[in-house]
Amino acid sequence: MSGDARTPAAPLAPRLRRAFERPRAKRAALIPYLTGGHPDVETSHRLIATLVDAGADVVELGVPFSDPIADGPVVQRSAHEALRAGVTPETVFELAAAHRDRVPFVLLTYVNSLLAYGGARFFARAAEAGVEALVIPDLPLDEAAATVTGAGVEAETAGGLVALASAAGVSLVPMAAPTSTDARLAMVGAAATSFVYCVAVTGVTGPRQEVGEALPGLLERLRRHTAAPLAVGFGISTPRQAAHVAGLADGVIIGSALIDAVARAAGREGACAAAGDLVRRAGAAIAAG
Amino acid sequence: MTVESRFGPYGGRYVPETLIPALDELTSAYGEARDDAAYQAELARLLAEYAGRPTPLYHAARLSERCGATVLLKREDLLHTGAHKINNVLGQALLAKRMGKTRVIAETGAGQHGVAVATACALLDLECAVYMGTEDVRRQELNVVRMRLLGATVVPVESGSCTLKDAMNEALRDWVSNVGHTFYAIGSVAGPAPYPAMVRDLQAVIGAETIAQVRERYGRLPDELVACVGGGSNALGLFHAFRHLPVRMTGVEAAGEGLDGRHGAPLAKGRPGVLHGSFSYLLQDAWGQVMEAHSVSAGLDYPGVGPEHAWLKDSGRAEYAAVTDEEALAAFAALTRLEGIIPALESAHAIAYVLRGPCDAAAAPPSPTVAGRHATDGGRVAFGPDGTRFAADDVVIVNLSGRGDKDVHEAAQLLEGPA
Predict the structure, then answer these.
(1) CATH code of the domain in which A19 resides
(2) ipTM of this model?
(3) In chain A, N or C terminus with fewer CB closer than 10 Å?
(4) Residue ranges of B 161-180 with Cβ closer than 8 A to chain A
């Protein structure tokens, strides 16, 4: 396993790569984000189908966690509601598995959910459910490559989570932030086996008036280190902002604005209508430029 | 010397990428400051002239008589702002100044760390925001008033259990958003590296003083060190200087309503996981969701624990007991009446441990039937969370980490019932 760090990253996530290469009639792939099982499991199924119908190229599902330190109030609230409703990683795997034929999935999970499930088991189950890539916001690159041991978990993470993930055929998505140094971006580029998740703002998830002014510089610096697709998230809430980011990057992630629209809508039908409307308008804006 | 980032397998930096450069910057700034005589001299001056170090090592004669051992109290409660927290905060605030940061943020549970940070920020003319769970705002109202008087903004946090865990989540989110000009002053030996090592180093003055004091007075080392453990900074502060010496170290966690009910004892009942940037013992459910802790003392009401404690536990260098709310309240009352010292409810947990009295391990062969103790394979006597480890006439040093002014109202209600 230790050889993996030196050999070039294996090509993983074939469907994701295709989604970035050929987004459906758009300049960039549109990636809506939902908290799995929010507001309830049945609505979550309907929402995923709606997003795909509305033009989503990839769907990102969040595994709800009790202490999501990278998330702003909207995603936090959705996670806590989903947890109260009994959502587990298993629920989210089942959501992905049910729709895997229609769209490639990315899962966002905090690292403790994965450790509690067992690293190797989590990756195997994700792969089985059709999840091609994992975003773990509290697992920076250095820790992803480190072996995590301790009472009860050593066997599950020996060799580092990176090695375990690639053994299961799942891509760990490295994250880049406006604060990342060039040395960090070189590490990010070298670790990219599907795409790079670029954080648009120095902050947590949630709507912003403006997409961060640091973004173009970050993308430009990152391009020097990788040919992998660059998807941008955090703070993109309007079709206008989506169109702007599509002019700079390969993928546009819309999370809090979508969850907020779902949360404000009345009933299941209203939630699907609101989500479909936002994603269609964002898709049109991305296509129009 | 590098700044440790792992203790055995524990520790690490499990935080968003956005913060990694800031942690790198902090690690190198702290490493330089630690080796800089001018920084150390300024810190030593403030600790002496402003905070009131050295603190006395007090022979608590009446408590000793009650406990059946010689109990010495390290009087961190006499420090300016009322607890050991100021040791760490002065070090971090000087570092913030040195790094050119203009704003300091902090999380607080009991409010002692928050008050210390607000104090240091007033002294060094830094902007200050303190995150505090709404439940703690309620039960530690006096400290909220103090922080506001000192010019800090107190930000009430209404999420999760509305206590220390949630305050720390929100402080981390603030830091992610304002990392350029903001210094995050973590109050315990928790969080991502370099905080656990840095905070321990800054608290290690407690143990360094204690060694000199006990040698001078008694011409010997103590048999055992005792300190309460929430995140665990006052315990590591006392333990660190003794780590290579033949002295037992005992941490006391909050058993809350009892270890089978709601409590704050991750070392006794949790398992390793990641919270607030480090890998350590954690109260969590089968899915890894962090469980809400409970303790009568706000400072111990935390589901995690510093990673070095996880390693001290696994390696056997330290052992950990747990004390219930009821025992802690009884100890609070006992120390007050026996010695005229009103302890913080946190520190009362350490007092409760010694009040249990000596174990009879030395006198009688270990027996699995003796409450709180059981024999281990190697013949070494381990003890359960509800036992003790000292023998009659041992010299035991308890870190009296804070004073109880902040708890008087809460404790009076709990001891006497609502008026």
Answers:
(1) 3.20.20.70
(2) 0.94
(3) C
(4) 165, 169, 172-173, 176-180
Query: How many other C-beta atoms lie within 10 A of the C-beta of residue B356?
Result: 18
- In 3D space, the residue among B218, B221, B237 whose CA is nearest the CA of residue B229 turns out to be B237
Q: Which residue has the tokens 């030395």?
A: B362
Which residues from A are below 8 Å from B276, CB to CB? Answer: 67, 69
pLDDT digits (tens, 9 = 90+) for A36-71: 999 999 999 999 999 999 999 999 999 999 999 999
Backbone angles phi, psi at A68, to 5 degrees: -80, 90
Residues sharing a CB contact under 8 Å with residue A177, sequence separation 6 or more, in sequence order: A198, A199, A202, A218, B16, B17, B18
* Residue span of the structural domain in which A272 resides: 14-288
Mean of all residue pLDDT scores within chain B: 93
In a domain, A27, yes or no: yes
Residue B126 and residue B43: Cα distance in Å, rounded?
17
Task: Name the residues of A annotated as catalytic.
Answer: 60, 71
In the numeric block, which tokens belong to residue B271? 């398992």
CB contact under 8 A, B290 and A137: no
Residue A6 maps to a domain: no
C-alpha distances in Å from residue B373, one per residue of B258, B359, B391: 17, 9, 14
Q: How confident is the model at residue A6 (pLDDT cuts 50, 70, 90)?
A: very low
Please tell me whether the overall predicted TM-score, pTM, comes out greater than 0.90 for this model: yes
**A3 or B417: which carries more pLDDT confidence?**
B417
Which of A38-42, A72-76, A161-165, B262-266 is predicted with the least confidence, judged by mean pLDDT? Answer: A161-165
Q: Looking at residue A117, what is its pLDDT?
A: 94
- Cβ neighbours of A72 in B, within 8 Å: 173
What is the token pair recorded at A206? 């949630």
